[in-house]
Amino acid sequence: MSVVIAYQSLNSNVSHDHDIEASTFQAHTRKAQKTLATKTTESYSLRFPVINDGKPDLAVYGPAELLPTAPTNPMDTGEGRGRKRKRDEMEAEDSASKMLGMFHGKALQIYQLAQREFGQACNLLAFGELDAKHKSWVDAEKVAGKLVHVSVFPKACNCFSLHSANSANTTKFIAEGDGWVAALCNGVRVVFVHVPNSLATDPTKAQTFYQNIKNTVLTSKGGGIIDVVMGDTNQPHDLFSPTNISAGLDGKFSDGHASKNNISPVDTHDVKFKGTNSVNTKKFDVAIYNTATVEKIDVRYFSQFSHVAKSAAAYTDHMGVLVRVKKIA
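Given the sequence above, the corresponding structure tokens read:
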């Protein structure tokens, strides 16, 4: 049996209030919007039909819309470089409302991407930098699936929210720590990471980070050998994560997406990117798998785009990762 898992980080700030404002059009999202808007003058964002009221993971058939990219994000208030951002209460409320709508739309799109790419429903959908239990994230479970677990840390940017529209009863939280959370989904043991910048480029610190994860997961209820590590690694180059994850987890781990400088998000048309970050330079977001336990892994990337009316705009700063995993019997 194959298991489908998706991950995308929001771009949240260090606020201790985990509301929508903490994730609304932050600095790196604005950079991503500039990157996406200047990629080409042609329309290239695809919006697939979805179910707005019903099970979000059910396949919806029909052609995608090809939408133009907004020149600036609809939530931008015209902040100038070095100038303190000023928004009155009405602007803040309007921006938060638009962000919530874009989050809802993206969650629904991710479920349809799984159906179109793999012909099966996404079993586990994880969002980094999101505390979906906060009251401002209205109807998060309606669009992203039932909450399996929320990792709540003081800063909004350190949280994780794990959802499932179909496998909540067979997905179990294992353990969590600073920059990671582990779960068991239909037999696949996955660790979602948002590696802290303070250790993301240092091999020794990175290996210690992953070694601590291994030790915690091995000794926790439902724990064991890790099959997949996926998420935002902030890695300096493509070989950094496979090398240091292998060293830290005491096994042979490989990148499930081997194509260098060739990322074609499945929710776009006829474009390629070098990286998954906001400025298209580094492949920060990865799916690294255990070659001793995984028979096959298929990896797809999806963009930072969500949609507002009839245009596409960045709702976050990094691309997302969608995988189908089949374990060795």
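Residues 89-118 form the longest helix (30 residues). Try to locate this feature in the token string yourself.
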